[in-house]
Amino acid sequence: MNFRKMLLASAALACAAMPIQAMADTAAKKIALSNNYAGNSWRQAMLTSWEKVTGEAVKAGVVAAADPFTTAENQATEQAAQIQNMILQGYDAIVINAASPTALNGAVKEACDAGITVVSFDGIVTEPCAWRIAVDFKEMGRSQVEYLSKKIPAGGNLLEIRGLAGVFVDDEISAGIHAGVAQFPQFKIVGSVHGDWAQDVAQKAVAGILPSLPEIAAVVTQGGDGYGAAEAFAAAKRPIPTIVMGNRQDELKWWKEQKDANGYETMSVSIAPGVSTLAFWVAQQILDGKEVKKDLVVPFLSISQDTLETNLASTQEGGVANVEYSQADAQKVIAEAK
Amino acid sequence: MKKVLSSDTIRLLIPALSLTILLISVFYLQPRAMSYVGLNLLFNLAVPIALATIAQMLIMTVNDLDLSMGTFVSFVACVAATFLQATPVIGVLILAAAIATYAALGVLIHMRNLPSIVVTLGMSFIWGGLAVLILPAPGGEAPAWVRAVMISRPPFMPMAIIACIIIAVVSHFIIMRSSFGVILRGVGGNARSVERAGWSILGVRAATYALAAFFAILAGISLVGLTTSADANIALRYTLLSIAGVILGGGEFTGGRVSPIGAVIGALTLTLAGSFLSFLRISPDWQIGAQGAILIVVLGLRLLLNRLENRGKRS
């Protein structure tokens, strides 16, 4: 009887200990990146960051593999098939930048049911079993107005440059900017144009609306449009207001030139493409058995007057200012969410 | 290969052969796929593609081409995830209206002698616009019964395989065995002689378009069953996939010469080709090219067999 009890107890102990042992070590785990699109500088930087950071992690033995996959066409059905293939390939975690927030839910559910950890970032998925690393675009818009309220306490007229009409991100950032204006009523939006996140489009749009506008104190933007706005103001021979930049290399370069010439002051804010590496570390932490909230918020990358030079130096010609995340950064983000 | 095999069988031989070869290579690369769950994962997204391919094949049978297939399936997916789920009666009415619209398109194309490519291209914008109106932001929810069917796990054979067999058999009977099918293929082959024999080509065209719409609707509904929710752009790829599926399965652009079983096999082959390339770890830059190469190889093989067949007839 005693012997049997002991046997039972040891068996129970082994059972209890086994999952912990398996969870505490991710060296044998394989993580895949499912990416829907690689056709612009931001996505290219995202993939480069992934390869750099995960390459080191694999070499250091943190995980067994971290393979990136990109679909040939930016289509949800194709990405769903890609995710189902990853299930077959036996990955332990799938990190997703999704083509659609909802159309992948079926495939994501299949993955969860197969015991796979799914972490989505940037283009997130709504399936409840997946983790989401979302960007607080509203706060990104609001923080611009907050910065301006410190720089120009008296307030003034604002020109808003929006992104691509009908896209979720554009609505969110714009809503944030309007919330900021409500919070700091000394500012007033006197004009709004769509710059489509492209310098040439923004320049044309701003040049078109400028003659009808009163004096502008500042321009609030969404990224990829600040340099075009500056060009439009210069061409119209109007004083250049405080233009909030969006971390693009051409914007930072222009800012640096102005800073050197006349002490121009502004800020720059956008999402770092290296957020893919944050998603990687979060997936690794989950595989490691850490308890992680399903919804995490990624910090955005802002550049101030003091950090301009270092960021400009590390940004490639035609690229976007980037930051790669470490395991410690991921642990910090996870801890903050609790 | 003399008189034992009919030309229809030879037509089916190449698609079946290419599917088998692809399947063996996939099993070799990824032995995990050789299981009940694995086969289901490999093929479940092929079910809506197979249905869309059958719809496209019907249109191609009467010598037309439907360039709105992808947007129409997307539209149906949006209806299925919203109206069909919340208010089934209205949902069914909308889908019935869509079938009527397709029949009217058939009539229009026939009466005014319009090129179907232009009409359906125009319609693709209308379907796309309607889909965005119904579902401005991605979302919606699949009706519970659709979801239950699509994730069901019947014994012995995965749902995806059973569904494909049913699609192939049903469409084979409609097109190759029924009297309607004979007239249908006749219209594509030689409309004038069918007309002289006393059949209404107008009626046949309208019925064909309506039937195609019915299959496309099944495609949209089954797609939503798999994805659980919809997106106005969810199935844009289906236009080209469905045409490629028909051609890969032994059909031809010059009407009347089609094979329903081949079309389903063609759809499966296209789906499998994607997985095969993904298992091979080919970089995305090359994937479209590699997919094209697979298509060219299969079509080249068919051309070769056609030539052998013709030579056999002459001598």
Automatic annotation (TrEMBL), chain A:
Query: To which protein family does this belong?
Result: Belongs to the bacterial solute-binding protein 2 family.
Signal found in the keyword field: yes
Q: Where would you find this protein in the cell? A: Cell envelope
Q: What is its main location?
A: other
| Residue stretches making up the Periplasmic binding protein domain | 31-291
Supply the alphabetized keyword list: Signal
Which residue ranges does UniProt annotate as crossing the membrane?
none
Record PANTHER family: D-ALLOSE-BINDING PERIPLASMIC PROTEIN-RELATED
Signal sequence range = 1-24
InterPro entries named in the record: Peripla_BP_I (IPR028082), SBP_2_dom (IPR025997)
Task: Spell out the protein name for this chain.
Answer: Ribose transport system substrate-binding protein
Automatic annotation (TrEMBL), chain B:
Keywords per UniProt:
Cell inner membrane, Cell membrane, Membrane, Transmembrane, Transmembrane helix, Transport
Spell out where the chain crosses the membrane. 12-29, 41-60, 90-109, 116-136, 156-175, 206-228, 234-254, 261-280, 286-305
Keyword Cell membrane present in the record's keywords: the answer is: yes
Tell me how this protein sits in the membrane. Answer: Multi-pass membrane protein
Query: Where does it mainly reside?
Result: membrane
Q: Does the keyword S-adenosyl-L-methionine apply?
A: no
Q: What InterPro entries has UniProt attached to this entry?
A: ABC_transp_permease
The cellular location(s) given in this protein's UniProt record come to:
Cell membrane
Protein name, UniProt field: Ribose transport system permease protein
Q: Which source organism does the UniProt entry give?
A: Rhizobium herbae
